Amino acid sequence: MRGKSGDMYLLAGFSGLMITLYLAFNWAPSVDINAFQSPEAQRIFYWHVPAAWAAFIAFTVLFIGSALWFFKRSPLGWKLHIAGSEAGLACGLMAVWSGCVWGAAEWGTPWDWEDFRLNTFGLLTLLALFLVLGRKSQPDGVESRDTFSTFGLYGFVLVPITYIATRIWVIRHPGPVIAGDENSSISGDMALVLIIGALSFTVLIIGHIMTSIEITKFEQRIDRLQKELDGE
Fold first, then answer.
1. Number of domains in the chain
2. Can you give the residue range of the structural domain that contains 74?
């Protein structure tokens, strides 16, 4: 039943994302052409911001799962660690890719190595990549789990640093539009599309985590059966 629920969340999330893309390109108002070099490229904002928001949720799940495993040896904690790292990688890559599209059009370069927020978020995505690939390349065991969960714990410090970076180091990246100051407000129609995108990505993340937990349980069950057959 839980696996089917995860599939329903995934389907709902994908459907919401398709609606978000349609509204972003065909309904949402354009920005002031005098304020942007490439005003039409700004429409990627409705995908980029929700993807980054979902990545932060995933990294929070990764942190909780890492803590539960490292301090409590909780099997559920390890499953959350796996789900959080995979979801963080997926959403992180979507946020980075859409940000590069925006940067290339608006700034003339897909990446600015001097922008603090871009680089801290990039490090978060690389951390997720390391955890996903590392887990798949190393035999499962207490020592490997401890190592990866330690990275998950210490890496989480980049989440608040990334969020507040543009409040302290304003370079190129715009300031936060979620829980930002009075200058970060957007119009009603733009806010509606952004909210739909954020909710869709959130539902997608929930479905991904639920499905990942079920897949991990299945993989662990297969490993146990294989060891029994091998007489270990």
1. 1
2. 2-26+40-229
| 33 assigned to some structural domain | no
Burial label, 131 (beta-carbon count in 10 A; 0-12, 13-18, 19+): buried
How many of the other CB atoms lie within 10 Å of CB of 103?
19
Both structure tokens of 206: 């929930």
31 domain-assigned: no
The answer to whether the CB of 38 falls within 8 A of the CB of 106 is: yes
36-48: pLDDT as tens digits: 566 666 788 888 8
The answer to the question of residue 35 being in a domain is: no
Q: How far apart are CA 110 and CA 7, in angstroms?
A: 34
Q: Which residues contact 107 (CB under 8 A, 6 or more apart)?
A: 37, 172
What does pTM read for this prediction? 0.85
Does residue 32 form part of some domain?
A: no
